[in-house]
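Reviewer comment 2.1 asked that we show a complete input and output for one of the modelled complexes. We chose the magnesium ion case, as it is the one discussed in the main text.
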Amino acid sequence: MSRNKKWIWFGIGAVFSITLPMMVSNPYALQFFINMLLFAYLATGWNIIGGYAGQMALGNGVYFGIGAYVSTVLFVYENLSPWVGMVLGGGVAAFIALLMGRMTFRLSGSYFSLSTVAVLHVIRLFVLSSNRLFGYETRGAQGIYVPWRGQSFLNMQFEGKTEYYYIILAFFVIGLFISWWIKTSRMGYYLAAINTNQEATSSLGVNVMGMKLKASCISAFMTALGGSFYAQFIMMVDPSRVLGYDLSVQIMLYAAIGGRGTLAGPVIAAFLLAPLNDLLRAVFGTTVSGLSLVFYGLALMLIIYFIPQGIWPYVSEKLKEMKGSAK
Amino acid sequence: MIADKERRTVLEARNIVKQFGGLTAVNNVSMHVNEGEIVGLIGANGAGKTTLFNMIAGVFPPTSGRISFMGQEIQGLPCHKMCRLGIGRTYQIVKPFVNLSVLDNTVVGALNQCKDVKSAREKARKTLDFVGLGHRMDVSSRNLNLPELKRLELARALATEPKLLLLDEVMAGLNPTDSGRVIELVRRIRDERGITIIVIEHVMKAIMTLSNRIYVLNQGSLVADGTPEEVSKNPEVIKSYFGEKRYAKN
Ligand SMILES: Nc1ncnc2c1ncn2[C@@H]1O[C@H](COP(=O)(O)OP(=O)(O)OP(=O)(O)O)[C@@H](O)[C@H]1O
Ligand SMILES: [Mg+2]
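Response of the prediction step:
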């Protein structure tokens, strides 16, 4: 794609996304888009460690939960603005990613993946079985409700959904920018090399462990911020909502289906699949419970079966072919 | 030619031992390499040549012994630190980054000494031209044939700007024409870039024409060293490396 064309697409996207809340008056429809953006953002964050660096982390949901809990607890009990709380939550998540990485990056392949699931499991059980965490009442499985303290930007509380939409849109744009920046910088080259051959990468002067830890921390930080946002948006946290396995798997699936290691892939997959999930639930959710999941799973299986390399690599290859034959 | 003693010692290994469980892969080896030399390292399969390289390149530490590089003790440092100090290496079994283009493969190496991606890309281009892969720059490294992959290994290591280059069988599997080109290239790396080189090679003709000096390993131990003529006349070498039959044929 030429430079100009890219900017035109970018402009269209910008105008559309900024004016969207004015065109969509139905709050449920807007929620639809908030969901899309949130998942696109989370998948973009996962892609840094899971795609660029090729480390199949399956437990990224743990950082989402940490972000949600830290900012919520601090808001509820300490009256700390979620904007500050979420940076702290991100810091905690990055720190845990660092600790975990030090232990698990020495493991190879599927053992690494399994260990990330194990950590999610441990933290989830820990939160589930504790009434108090670090002196704050978190009420185990029940979770905490976020009290309404009046519409305020500082409290990240709004009566409508429009403001939430713009916040997550900003998250998404910044996340995408970070991902692009990493991909095109020194770090991007190093992560891509680590993805295929760690030994050869280190022989070229790259501190492989350090790079993986850095990627993992950035990914964890981004994911945790998403968790904080989500908690403010739905005004509650509980282990099943913010520390579930399905969330971790969903994030990973979007990135994998869209095209691991590509900038646009995770975004495209999230934009297609998150609404599909919502739509199926809206259609079948009331008639037969669970049926929507069957269709959703079937759709995922078909995509993985027919385009295993991911949607975006597939589409861009086809586009190239079309251009080639047009000439 | 400058006399051996006047040159700076780039690498010195003293009493290096490497044990894998009960197996002694490298047994009390001492060697040195002077600036601007091409030093050959030969020995039968399993003699411990690659293991020796792996210790110099920091893949694993020696069980005992010392290695110094430009006067600094380096044994036990990790790979990436060795590279940053100026030790580059290629792999006997090529390890291309198959998800990247030939150029990007080389950029990863070039970033070692470059401040930004732009200058690294420039250097990678020049390095690829130097090794004769300039016309294949934008191809995915997945699509290279073996001679090209060996050159890519070379380009990547060269792009890190090493002072010492360890070449592990860069001619293995190449036909005589291709390996002749590689011999020429290795010489140019030393002459034009002033890089000191250690080569492991089974192709005797190549090692004899390239090397200033040769070390011979047999089952982990050093059995001979000297100029190519000295080494090829050494009865110990003829027995342990060339094999009696092969010697008789020559
Ligand atoms: N990482 C390792 N773990 C265990 N044993 C090893 C390891 N690396 C090498 N060895 C053993 O050490 C011995 C020396 O192997 P090395 O690869 O150094 O030989 P080589 O001289 O390079 O042989 P070739 O000419 O076949 O490449 C062999 O017996 C090999 O099986
Ligand atoms: Mg070997």
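Residues 18-243 of chain A form one domain. We note this here for comparison with the apo prediction described in Section 3.2.
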